[in-house]
Amino acid sequence: MNVIDVQIVSQSEEIPTQEQFQYWVDAILTNSSENSEIVIRIVDEPEMIQFNHKYRNKEEATNILSFPFEIPDGVKSNFLGDLLICTPIIEKEALLQNKELDHHWSHMIVHGVLHLLGYDHIDNHEAEEMEALEIKILKKINIENPYQETN
Predict the structure, then answer these.
(1) Taking all residues of the chain, what is their mean pLDDT, rounded to a whole number?
(2) Which of 21, 39, 90, 122 could disulfide-pair with 82, CB 3.0 to 4.6 Å?
(3) 106 CB contacts (<8 Å, ≥6 apart)?
(4) HSE-up of 6 (CA within 13 Å, CB side)?
(5) Distance CA 138, CA 72 (A)
């Protein structure tokens, strides 16, 4: 089983359980031969703004930031990195996009872990590849395509 360390410092009462986070991470890493380790930190907007400013030079909160661990040469580690997730932003987005909150959480976890695995969406080709993989993984856990328009 993959090891996840969930750190909750958000004031929200609508945060997924440890079991949900574990299920989503395991759904992504099913083909991995070794168990991976990930830290998931659940925060409110002030902490996310600090991190987004420090690492992306942006003065606003965002839904998720991924910090892949760069393994030094000669060191063996299963640690993939850290995910920083902003609860109020996730809640607002789910409401605005007319999505079930836990579905949006699962999408953000899938999205973030894929970043930890080296996927990105800087250009259109990378974005299409990453989105297709997200859709495939989410479908496996009975979550609809997060990119399709909903009414």
Answers:
(1) 91
(2) 39
(3) 20, 24, 138, 141, 143
(4) 16
(5) 32
> Token digits for 103?
């579905």
pLDDT in tens, 51-68: 999 999 999 999 999 999
Phi/psi of residue 35, nearest 5 degrees: -70, 140
**15: amino acid identity, one letter:** I
Domain 3-140 is in which class?
A: alpha beta
**For residues 90 and 63, is the Cβ–Cβ distance under 8 A?**
yes
Side chain identity at 90, as an amino acid letter?
I
What whole-number distance in Å separates Cα of residue 135 and Cα of residue 38? Answer: 21
Q: Which residue, among 74, 66, 85, 80, has the nearest Cα to 32 in the 3D structure?
A: 80
Tell me the per-residue pLDDT of 132-148, one tens digit each, with 9 for 90 and over: 999 999 999 999 888 87
CB 146 within 8 A of CB 108: no
Return the half-sphere exposure (C-beta side, CA atoms, 13 A cut-off) of residue 143: 23
Global confidence as pTM? 0.90
Pairing of strands 79-86, 64-68: antiparallel
* Residue entry with tokens 């929200």: 12
Ramachandran angles phi, psi of 68, nearest 5°: -65, 140
